[in-house]
Design goal:
The protein is mostly beta strands and 50 residues long. 12% of the residues lie in helices and 56% in strands.
Length: 50
């Protein structure tokens, strides 16, 4: 599976990261992309969960 931290965004005093994870659908076998914007400390947890 592909995973990537794409960008670091800064809004005011908050620092945010956009993460994209490629997930394979169990039903059709197709791949979909899951995107999320979060604080940098949460990125590892985002990629570990299934």
């Amino acid at each position: 599976m592909a995973k990537k931290s794409v960008a670091t965004l800064q809004t005011g005093s908050n620092r945010l990261t956009k993460a994209i994870n490629m997930v394979k659908s169990p039903k059709s076998g197709a791949y979909t992309f899951v995107e999320s914007i979060m604080i940098p400390e949460e990125v590892d947890n985002f990629f570990k969960k299934k």
